[in-house]
Amino acid sequence: MPGDINVADLPADASVRSLRVHFYLEHNETTAAQWQHVLMLLQIRIDSGQWALSRAWHKAHARRGIYEAWIAQKSPIAQAILERIKALYPIEDAVRGQPAAQRLAARQAHSVPKLTELKRYLETALSSLSRKCTLAKAIRYCLVRWPALTRYTSDGCLEIDNSAAERALRTVALGRHNFLFAGSDAGGERAAGMYSLIGTCLLNGIDPEGYLRYVFERIADHPVNRIAELLPWNVAPHLADPIAVAA
Description:
This protein folds into 3 domains: about 1-55, no CATH class; about 60-160, no CATH class; about 180-245, no CATH class. The two termini are about 45 Å apart. The chain has helices at about 60-75, 75-85, 90-95, 100-125, 135-145, 145-150, 165-175, 185-205, 210-220, 230-240, 240-245, and strands at about 15-30, 35-45, 50-55. A hairpin with a 4-residue loop joins strand 1 and strand 2 (about 35-45). Helix content is about 50%, strand content about 15%. A 3-stranded antiparallel β-sheet has the order 1-2-3, covered by helices on one side. The chain is elongated, with a radius of gyration of 22 Å. Helix 1 runs antiparallel to helix 2 (about 75-85). The chain is of the alpha+beta class. It contains 11 helices and 3 strands.
């Protein structure tokens, strides 16, 4: 993926712990599978239990800020911006599942002109608003992150927004309070290992519970120098066979 993913350094504070959550979103084509990588950083302050999420890759949240400003103020400027953003999505619907080259060509032909006009409108609107108003802040958020917001128009493997990755993050958010009781850093590392293992099962299209049952039934007698045979992608063919699972 073009461009670097930058995550701000954590503060030198022993009470802060972080969890770097990596998502790999599959983009299928007829000849190959491309993977979009999204990194999010989840931080917890141990003494207070407060959580913070910082995104290493900003996309759909630009629209959310404009929408919240429209809900609060019913501004016609905010409505006009939302309509322009909405017009970008039918282009994506038309090429979803198509080869990356075809997606890129459609975006260059149809999305780039719309984005150019949207940026011009944002800049014009910003000059007419008070710097402290909610809508002005939302517009500045868009303009500062404009290269990231439009990066998908230069790579057909990228999606227009991070919605799929954030849906995947919900599983982490649902269990966040459990992390307070990990007991130690080592306990947190083991929990992260389980998240990785279960996530790998899902990426390989196998049921995590069935996979763990298969491994637990065999690992005690399995040669340590052949442990790779028990990795999810190697176990998947056996789980597809009900006889092997029951064996």
